[in-house]
């Protein structure tokens, strides 16, 4: 048997099919694109569906790939079985209407048995086939397979309902008698049975029938080949590994985990081995998922990542790992996979930040959560039902961050269960509480119900005009009723066409006025929102009566609108600048475009350095000064993506989209309003940057006249400072501040030196006041107008000169008091602890403290209690005997 590394196996497979006319397809992102049926890419063929269903014609009908995949339907089995993985690689070769059964079988047998390639002994190979598939049997025998190694299996028919289907053949490798885990006569001890000896390595699907709605099958005019070979399984054969985990795909992660553990070794203990395997598997999965853009959260893919991270952390605790550790495994994963996935190692710093942030959040509450879980489990074990209540499970989830599935898994391992229905009921109660807490919830609900029935068409024309002279008033809503006319107060109006932008995509609604045909003011537009059926719904304050069917002039506030446009285009420049400076992982997480400022939220773990923030700001301004034309085209989403347009993937796009580009610098999907040229923005200035949640940062910025005003205000403050510093020019302020800081530092040093001398003089008297309390010598005293630094210095002097067994000193400064207690090493061994002493006397100064057994300190707000503290110290020593 050859000894091949995982990268060599992967490359050999791809090269084999490349030599036979196949195009090597890159491994697609784990996050599916244009496939809402999948949470993750879960197989090699998942990325080929568009070719097999005919929606896209491939440039080459022969393709091969090594596709990273994630399956999460049995996470609880990972680590407990030999081959369950959440992340795995599927090697595959595909034919779309080109070669078929005989060619696929011949190539499979050649790859597996030729000395040039895998070089496996053909006598160790067994193939299962569909009983009626005589062609497959003949083709295997013709290729060189002993007929006794062909096994009929009724399950060997790939069928997922209507559409393409067909028989398949599975290839098994006999690993030998040393892997026998069943008796020779066990009914499962055969290729295809549930055993460890015969390992399935390859599945070849012959898609040759169309499964019709009437459950009949007709031959497909163009037959296809779809195959899947698990890389991890094949590597375990080449490396003679008992399980997938003893291969070079996992062992480096396991060995690194062992280094971080509390002296644990892989292979020494079965329970520890489960923890090692869980960590190794989950470290791979989260590294690849985060690299592809997924972020830990409480929903969807994010919830899966969060669950994997937390499951790995708990496994780490079982190995004695108390600190954050999972992030340290990310570069190990990157090194293992760098031959085929170099981007993982390139993005390791970012991935580590995401993982470490999530680890820290969970570790902060994990110990308390585990204590509660163990306490509840002890009670459940004593109960008749052996079931944890839904309320307890919800508390673990809501307070301590335990995913429900993790609690379920823990209980199952102990032979217990959890009330899932009760947990769901608690979740619903929480949702109801949140819904009831929303302001004006009832009124909004009534309004939505009312508006659902209004289907009058309305057209937005504000992209090209900000005034409409003849807009017909189609609908009036007043006091939650549809009316024909309205005289005063607030009303909601729908027109057949409007220049008023309805709030959407972070851009606030337009404001303006409505006039009658004579030019008289009839209403002020204070808000515009989208009605349920898509119309722009204008909230107005009436100045005169309005009537359904009448025509009005709609006039947008041009100055307000222009300022919003500037800020909106600036957010696009900011979005791209963040990607350029911080990395491609940054994605928009929300925005607000007001006339006076803009707010932009984005995904990024860790703080943004001042240097990077300055670079982002400079890059935005460079695009403004470059006078880039801003153009908008309307097209379909696919064409937009081919143009390189950045999409907010949480948004759903219709058949037509607007693509906004600022020169070649920024291209985005956007339905908002924008300037015609970046020079209209004038100036861009960041005024703040902060974190607003786990992995989400926020930038607030201003443009145009607000940016000028901000800088003018900053200049005014600098001039004020310059005046206070008595400097004639602003440029001299930094140098003057540095000089003053140096002077302050020098004065502080002189003051500390003087205080030390005074304290030393006082200490000479204090050190002479030695009391004998039951054979223990103690010095107590108060040093006036000093500080904790001086007390520590005096304690060091006391210890060096061995002046007594115990020292207690106090000092005051204005309305604050400090205490220090020191105990000689001999008395520490005798049972006297400085920490216990300081806690016993600190209440006299309304304070608290602590420290080491030989020295502790405390602070408080009652200097008048220092004398009482000294007396209490003597009493404490007296009571210890």
Automatic annotation (TrEMBL):
> Reaction catalysed by this chain?
tRNA(Ala) + L-alanine + ATP = L-alanyl-tRNA(Ala) + AMP + diphosphate
Question: If you read the UniProt record, what top EC class would you report for this enzyme, in one word?
Answer: ligase
Q: Tell me its cofactors.
A: Zn(2+)
The yes or no answer to whether the keyword Kinase is present is: no
Q: What is its main location?
A: cytoplasm
Q: Where in the cell is it found?
A: Cytoplasm
Q: Tell me, what is one Gene Ontology molecular-function annotation carried by this entry?
A: alanine-tRNA ligase activity
Q: Could you give the cofactor binding note from the entry? A: Binds 1 zinc ion per subunit.
Keywords linked to the UniProt accession: Aminoacyl-tRNA synthetase, ATP-binding, Coiled coil, Cytoplasm, Ligase, Metal-binding, Nucleotide-binding, Protein biosynthesis, RNA-binding, tRNA-binding, Zinc
- Bilayer-crossing residues are none
Q: Which residues form a coiled coil?
A: 730-764
Pfam families assigned to the protein according to its UniProt record, in alphabetical order: DHHA1 (PF02272), tRNA-synt_2c (PF01411), tRNA_SAD (PF07973)
Q: Which InterPro entries does UniProt cross-reference here?
A: aa-tRNA-synth_II/BPL/LPL, Ala-tRNA-lgiase_IIc, Ala-tRNA-ligase_IIc_anticod-bd, Ala-tRNA-synth_IIc_core, Ala-tRNA-synth_IIc_N, Ala-tRNA_ligase, Ala_tRNA_ligase_euk/bac, DHHA1_dom
**Occurrences of domain Alanyl-transfer RNA synthetases family profile (ranges):** 4-713
Q: Which amino acid positions bind Zn(2+), per UniProt? A: 568, 572, 670, 674
Q: What is its EC number?
A: 6.1.1.7
Keyword presence, Nucleotide-binding? yes
Q: What does this protein do?
A: Catalyzes the attachment of alanine to tRNA(Ala) in a two-step reaction: alanine is first activated by ATP to form Ala-AMP and then transferred to the acceptor end of tRNA(Ala). Also edits incorrectly charged Ser-tRNA(Ala) and Gly-tRNA(Ala) via its editing domain.
User: Which family, according to UniProt?
Assistant: Belongs to the class-II aminoacyl-tRNA synthetase family.
Q: What is known of its domains?
A: Consists of three domains; the N-terminal catalytic domain, the editing domain and the C-terminal C-Ala domain. The editing domain removes incorrectly charged amino acids, while the C-Ala domain, along with tRNA(Ala), serves as a bridge to cooperatively bring together the editing and aminoacylation centers thus stimulating deacylation of misacylated tRNAs.
Name of the protein in question: Alanine--tRNA ligase
Q: Lineage in the entry?
A: Bacteria, Bacillati, Bacillota, Bacilli, Lactobacillales
Designated gene of the protein: alaS
